[in-house]
Every structure is written in structure tokens, then in C-alpha cells.
Design a protein that fits this description.
By secondary structure, the chain is mainly alpha-helical. It folds into two domains: about 70 residues, no CATH class; about 30 residues, no CATH class. It contains seven helices and two strands. Helix 6 packs across helix 7.
Length: about 140
């Protein structure tokens, strides 16, 4: 009898879990239809009535961080300098154009980083020998 009761409770719990998941998904879809943001706000933003609002000081810091990294500066040190949390660094760069209107290409950054590390002339010389350097 106890085992049957336990099985019944498990079935009800499973059904309730499915209903909760369904209601949450419906709420998310409704919010998206209304143009609201779903999930955590990006760095430099906050929520106000479900819509993203910029936090000017953080937004400008994120933009400046992206610009400096695009120049070939080291990501971690630049983030520390601009007081950007390490946990936000990757998402800021991955969504740079969508959230901060500044395009960022990690492959291009690697080239710029190599220029900073080795010097422009050395990198130019190496790429010219391989035939990969755009002329």
C-alpha cells in the first residue's frame, strides 16, 4: 500500500512539474512578444518594467573595454583596469556589436595581439613570408 501511494505521489509531482514548465514557457513567450528582454541583463544594462535600460557609467566602461581590446590589448588586464568582472568579460566581447554597437572579431584580436606582443614589423615579416598578409 505504501509503495502504491509513493508511486501516485511521484506521478502527481511529475505532472505538476510539467505544468509549471509549460506555464513558465508561456510566460517567456508572452514577454518576448511584448518586446521584453528575457534572462539576465548584459553588463551595463538593468531592467525597468521588463525592458533593458542602460546604466551610462557601466555602458561606457564596457564600450571602452571593447575598443581597447580591439587594439590588441590583453583581455584580462584590460578588464581589470576598467573594473569589468572577469565573469562578464567573455559575454561582453561575444555580444559587443549587439549590445554596445562595436563589432569585435576574436580572430582579428589575435592578429592585433600578436602585433602588440611581437611588434608590427616582426609580424608583418612573418605573415609576408607565409603569403597570408594582405597586400
Amino acid at each position: 500500500m505504501a509503495e502504491m501511494m509513493l508511486n501516485m505521489m511521484m506521478i502527481f509531482a511529475d505532472a505538476e512539474r510539467k505544468m509549471i514548465r509549460s506555464r513558465v514557457q508561456e510566460g517567456i513567450e508572452t514577454a518576448i512578444e511584448k518586446g521584453k528582454h528575457v534572462g539576465r541583463p548584459p553588463f551595463g544594462y538593468t531592467f525597468e518594467d521588463g525592458f533593458l535600460q542602460q546604466i551610462p557609467s557601466e555602458y561606457v566602461r564596457a564600450q571602452t573595454f571593447i575598443r581597447e581590446v580591439r587594439k590588441g590589448r590583453e583581455k584580462q588586464a584590460t578588464a581589470e583596469f576598467f573594473d569589468i568582472p572577469t565573469s562578464k568579460m567573455r559575454s561582453i566581447l561575444e555580444r559587443a556589436e549587439a549590445n554596445y554597437d562595436i563589432p569585435f572579431d576574436n580572430n582579428q584580436w589575435k592578429i592585433e595581439r600578436a602585433k602588440v606582443t611581437t611588434g608590427e614589423k616582426t609580424l608583418h615579416h612573418l605573415l609576408s613570408e607565409e603569403g597570408n598578409y594582405p597586400k
